[in-house]
Amino acid sequence: MNLHTLKPAIGSRKNKKRIGRGQGSGRGGTSTKGHKGAKSRSGYSQKFGFEGGQMPLQRRVPKFGFKNPNRVAYKVLNLDFLQKLAEDKGITEFTLDVFVELNLVDKSDRVKILARGTVDKAFTITAHAFSEKAKTMIETLGGSVIIAS
After folding, report:
1. Taking the CB of residue 131, how many other CB atoms lie within 10 A of it?
2. For residue 134, what are the domain limits?
3. Is 135 a member of any domain?
4. Average pLDDT for 81-110
């Protein structure tokens, strides 16, 4: 047996219908397209989302609100969580690399520090944004806030 001798099983392949090849073919005249209407004519193409005159889905579904294309999304870390990390792992300086290393954020994420909970240690924290309360809480304990660009 060779590749060039292989053939499909008898009866498994049918010849394509040859439409519009005259009356003798049995598929002449309207060429299986029926009588009249847009679908029977040449050059017909349906608009995307067309539902036969029924109100299309993209017009039926209510739309409201606004998506700001310039929105800046932050991954949020709270001070109580950083306090717990400092106690567990002995960290006093939190940088973006430390957050990535601990799998808290991805490299491309922007980080914001919020002021939930209490802090009793001085930290040096580098992040993209800080809430006002978090900033004052860190600085009153003698810590420092570095805003990354």
Report:
1. 16
2. 74-147
3. yes
4. 93
DSSP alpha helices (H): ranges in 2-142? 57-60, 79-89, 96-101, 132-140
Q: Does residue 95 fall inside a structural domain?
A: yes
Residue 95 confidence class, pLDDT cut points 50, 70, 90:
very high
Spatial contact of 122 and 101, defined as CB atoms under 8 Å apart:
no
User: Which tokens is 93 given?
Assistant: 């300086």
Q: What pLDDT, on a 0 to 100 scale, did the predictor assign at position 102?
A: 93
Does 108 fall in a domain? yes
Phi-psi region at 131: left, alpha or beta (left = phi > 0; alpha = psi -120 to 50): beta
Per the structure, the count of domains in the chain is 1
pTM score above 0.70:
no
Residue labelled with tokens 């567990």 = 88
